[in-house]
Write a structure and sequence with these properties.
The complex is a heterodimer.
Chain A (H helix, E strand, L loop, with lengths): L3 E5 L4 E7 L2 E7 L8 H25 L6 E5 L4 E5 L4 E2 L6 H16 L2 E2 L8 E3 L3 E3 L6 E2 L3 H18 L6 H13 L1 H17 L7
Antiparallel strand pairs in A: 1-2, 2-3, 3-5, 4-5, 6-8, 7-10, 8-9
Helix pairs in contact in A: 2-4, 3-5, 4-5
Chain B lengths: L1 E6 L4 E8 L4 E8 L10 H22 L9 E7 L3 H18 L3 E5 H13 L5 E5 L4 E7 L2 E7 L5 H11 L7 H9 L12 E2 L2 E2 L2 H12 L4 H27 L3 E5 L6 H13 L3 E4 L9 H15 L26
Parallel strand pairs in B: 1-4, 4-5, 6-11, 11-12
Antiparallel strand pairs in B: 1-2, 2-3, 6-7, 7-8, 9-10
Helix pairs in contact in B: 1-2, 3-9, 4-6, 5-7, 6-7, 7-8
Classes of the chains: A alpha+beta, B alpha/beta.
Chain lengths: ~200, ~325
């Protein structure tokens, strides 16, 4: 089977390939001509290795991610399980927002910061599957967890303004894992980050 | 219909007359120059604006071959920006609007950048990268507003370049000088912090590291080169993420930093990868100017007849673009 390009993402090209006679996904961070070669190589290698290890770490935290079959840090390629399902960016509902909240909270409870928590990185299979851990890292700081939450909030208010109560549903899902005391503390930090933004109102 | 626009958010005081078909009849401006090694002092900048304003206003009318009687509406930049500077523009606008009995229309300065850029380049529904001393944001239009997809979490790319330049004793704005120096480098890249947080960027760590790098005996051209490469690659990645997410087929870059050729070159590469058309705001109108205010006021007034009474007209130093309802755009 010839590799079939299915998506030219921001970071990587996604191909459908065959791996041990199973349908699989190959994610290749191909070189970007606009970046300096040294910078480009460093970013691609770093993110590929990180992504592969965090996909496994997220599983232990209780979040569904594709199985990693093979990693090539030099080519910046990961071959992973193919996940059937719809991209959440195109099918967001309040119920899914709740589940995204649960996913985020499970990761944070294991001190994993996703780093790119956006709706296009979720696929709705039977369960919700999270992708794209290239920017993930370990941290126990509330600030870093709040950065994750602020990003998904920004995505809700920019791309999904028609989905009503998206963020409140997310918060509800998050609180169902970690409790209201913890989420309140994190949301307070989200507010602090927002106020640091350009031209934010000081309230 | 003719509109007089008055811009005074930061270092530029500008007046411009524009007609309802988007023809810029005149564009007069004067830029406050800070002493080398220091930034905009709000009080000094506002003093500069006060001193030049009568001439700039007269010049804008004269070179447009119009008198105040021909003008139908007066637009002014009501924020965001430096308080003392904003107030100078507002005072001039209130005075002419009140005396000649013209409707007075407050305009969001950032919206002005985007709307004038779209008019001049012909972009209809672009993903926008707004990069200036005051803003670093990726935006797309949805449900009546320009929605923020990503932005800087601390300083803007304009501030990064200016503060780096000032630390070396350059005169602000420093972007030009840094670009020139970078182009003299042989392409020696030194690693600097590259911070992407999802769709957002952060430049404060990069600034500290670049200033430190410049102070430890490195070739200045190489430091400028590395700074530009790192900062612009971050912006290019943020844009590529937003393009991929939104599937927009147009991309527009506006704001003072849009004048940088290396940034435009990187974005061009991003756009061809993502199959989008790149629109770059013409250099002359990339930075702050009166035309952006005039054009936006005109569109607003033609669509909604929105205007304020002189006694109720205000300025806002903090006024986010994503709180502005834009009724004329779909």
């Amino acid at each position: 089977m010839q590799p079939l390009l299915i998506k030219r993402g921001a970071e990587a090209d996604i191909y459908i390939v065959e791996w041990n006679s199973k349908k699989a996904v190959s994610k290749v961070r191909s070189p970007k001509s606009y970046r300096h070669p040294d910078l480009d190589a460093a970013i691609r290698k770093y993110r590929t290795i990180h992504e592969a290890s965090f996909m496994s770490a997220a599983k232990s935290a209780g979040v569904m991610t594709p199985f990693v079959y093979f990693v090539d840090p030099v080519k910046a390629e990961i071959i992973m399980e193919f996940i059937e399902g719809q991209n959440v960016r195109d099918a967001l509902t309040p119920d899914i927002c709740y589940k995204i909240g649960r996913c985020a909270a499970l990761l944070h409870a294991s001190n994993i910061i996703h780093g790119d928590l956006t709706t296009s990185n979720f696929v709705m299979n039977k369960r919700l599957v999270l992708l794209d851990f290239g920017l993930s890292y370990y941290s126990e700081r509330t600030e870093d967890m709040a950065t994750d939450i602020r990003l998904i909030k920004e995505v809700f208010t920019s791309a999904h303004i028609a989905v009503r109560k998206a963020f409140p549903c997310f918060v509800e899902g998050y609180a169902s894992v970690v409790g209201t005391k913890k989420i309140d503390k994190t949301l307070e930090n989200v507010r602090k980050i927002e106020q640091r933004g350009r031209y934010a109102r000081m309230t | 219909m003719l509109c007089l626009g008055i811009e005074s958010t930061a270092h530029t005081f500008g007046c411009s007359v524009i007609d309802s078909r988007g023809k810029i009849l005149s564009d007069a401006r004067d830029v406050y120059k800070a002493p080398e090694g220091s930034g905009i002092h709000p009080r000094e900048a506002s003093r500069h604006h006060m001193e030049v304003s009568p001439d700039i206003l007269r010049n804008a009318l004269k070179s447009g071959n119009v008198t105040m009687k021909d003008i139908d509406i007066v637009g002014y930049s009501a924020g965001p920006g430096l308080g003392p500077c904003l107030r100078v523009g507002a005072v001039i606008a209130r005075t002419v609007a009140g005396f000649y009995k013209k409707p007075l229309v407050p305009v969001n300065h950032a919206l002005g950048h985007i709307e004038l850029g779209a008019m001049l380049t012909g972009a209809s529904d672009p993903l926008v990268l707004l990069v200036s001393g005051g803003h670093t944001m990726t935006l797309a239009f949805s449900h009546g507003r320009w929605r923020v997809f990503g932005e800087t979490l601390d300083i803007t790319v304009g501030q990064l370049l200016d503060q780096f330049g000032r630390a070396l004793g350059f005169a602000s704005p420093c972007g030009n000088r840094i670009e020139e120096l970078a182009s003299q480098s042989a392409g020696k890249y030194m690693q600097l912090p590259y911070i992407i947080k999802g769709n957002d960027v952060s430049f404060s760590g990069l600034l500290t590291a670049a200033v430190k790098l410049a102070s430890c005996n490195t070739e200045l051209a190489d430091t400028c080169y590395s700074l530009q490469e790192t900062a612009f690659a971050m912006l290019a990645e943020a844009v590529e993420r937003a393009l991929s997410f939104t599937s927009k087929k147009e991309m527009m870059i506006v704001g003072g930093v849009a004048a940088n050729k290396r940034l435009a070159q990187m974005l061009d590469s991003v756009c061809s990868r993502q199959d989008a058309k790149l629109f770059v705001c013409p250099i002359k109108f990339a930075g702050d100017n009166g035309a952006q205010i005039a054009w936006t006021a005109l569109r607003e007034y033609m669509a909604t007849k929105m205007n304020v009474q002189v006694e109720e007209s205000t300025v806002q130093q903090s006024w986010r673009l994503d709180t502005v309802h834009v009724s004329w755009r779909r």
